Amino acid sequence: MAAAISIANLTKRYDRHTAVDGLTLTVEEGESYALLGPNGAGKTTTVEILEGLRPRTEGSVAVLGFDPEKDHREMHRHVGVMLQEGGISPATRPLEALRLFAAFHEDPRDIGELVDLTGLKGTLSTPYRRLSGGEKQRLSLALALVGRPRVLFLDEPTAGMDPVARRTTWAIVDQLHSEGVTTLLTTHYMDEAERLSDRIGIINNGRLIAEGAPSDLIQRSGRVSLLARPGLDLTAFPVPAREIAPGQYVLDVDQVTPSDLAAVTAFLAEREVLLRELRVGATGLEDVFLELTVES
Amino acid sequence: MRAIVAQTRFELRNASRRGEAFLLLVLVPLSILLFFGFTGLFGLSVDMLMPGLLALSILSASLTSLAISTGFERKYHVLKRLGATPMPRSGLIIAKTTSVLITEIVQVAILVAVAFSVFHWRTDVNVGLFVVALLLGTAGMSGIGLLIAGTLRAEATLAVANGLYLVLLVLGGIIIPVWVLPPFLNELARILPAEPLTALFEASFHLTAFTATDLAALVFWAILGPALAAWLFTWEEK
Fold first, then answer.
1. Residue A279, strand partner residues
2. What class does CATH assign to A3-211?
3. What is this structure's pTM?
4. Exposure winner among A135, A277, B159, B222, fewest CB in 10 A?
5. Average pLDDT over residues B38-63
6. What is the ipTM of this complex?
7. Are A88 and B83 inside 8 Å of each other by CB?
8. Nearest 5 degrees, angle CA A11-CA A12-CA A18?
9. Whole domain around residue B69: which residue ranges?
10. Of B134, B132, B117, B115, nearest to B55 (Cα)?
């Protein structure tokens, strides 16, 4: 498979702050890739550089072989973009926005078909400011799809959507995936990343700290975690441990033994601390994400 | 081309929805014309008012209204979103310029139609000079409008653009002739873009003699305004 998106040693600096720090990754054609990371990790900056909305400081990027800075117009004939923020004026009606964006492309999708696909029927003449959060997101998705993109950038596509609308959006992304559209998704929802992507890249402080299929990332984690009262004295713990979130602890051991677990439960019992959960191995992507981002 | 036509239509539709734009673009110049046309207060006749009111129309469309609409489009990330489409930035600028020019043509047509039908205004026009003045005035004031919109936050743009409208209304020879102003304001008025525009419209109606300094002042703004806007305009608020 050819690379639809390639990023090599990408660096972006704002004055003294480095938002993206030597990032390298590749997304194959037809692949669905999720970029995860805490706030300020460099996800949106990376995506906006790929979209040609920000210049890079160093490194090289290509989308379908196009340089987003130099081949901006040609690249956007084949690329759909869903920004994190709406980008629509408050008085604009969805139908007007769809017609305008359709006029930017030589062979746009049929607007009626797009409206059915994204469930926008009934909102077409409502001013943007009166749309619900989910409807705004669906309009933004429809605008990204109007030009029949080969590559789709989705920046937090389901933020503000209710569970039903989220699943509808997932179904649309699934359908596009089955049609061979390459998608690069950023999200804070781990279930969304797990559900929609073939591969996940986790970035923190502008660097890629882990990459792989969701199931690989989960299996790779052999950690022991427990939930108990926040603020335990970790210096007295029988095995090395860290508190990665209030009340959520991770044991820093490569191979956990039954005696380690017994020592931990005994330690807590002696202090009359209720052990609310003890887990060996990660059960979800969120655990892996927390572990990796806190570690890095 | 299709994209630019669609964007121009979109700009005009959005402008037609803004009540404050209608007030600024049509109601204010028309009210001034009707008020002074009927009352003749301060000895102002329609002949004397028309050049200034046409300059006021250019000022309101190409500076104030353009600055405010662009400032809020920048705030709402509309400009950023358009940047992620196949339409180039130059296409957006052409569409905005075209919509400003169409707005000005409508404004001029309304003012002239009312002056013609209500006050039986007749004039002999040097069309070439009129068009040159209109285009230079539009270029200069659009440049200033985009400079404000592209460097300040939307709320500040709103305040500055409206403030500048009032300043240029007073210093533009639009209602009050600049020679009645104190000498330093008189001098200031002559180097700002509104007064030379009024003066060139007066010359195009053969009310006053053409002066090269007015043309030079408008050319200066027509170069400086867009150049500063092109240099300092940022597509997103920081």
1. A225
2. alpha beta
3. 0.82
4. A277
5. 91
6. 0.84
7. no
8. 95
9. 2-232
10. B134
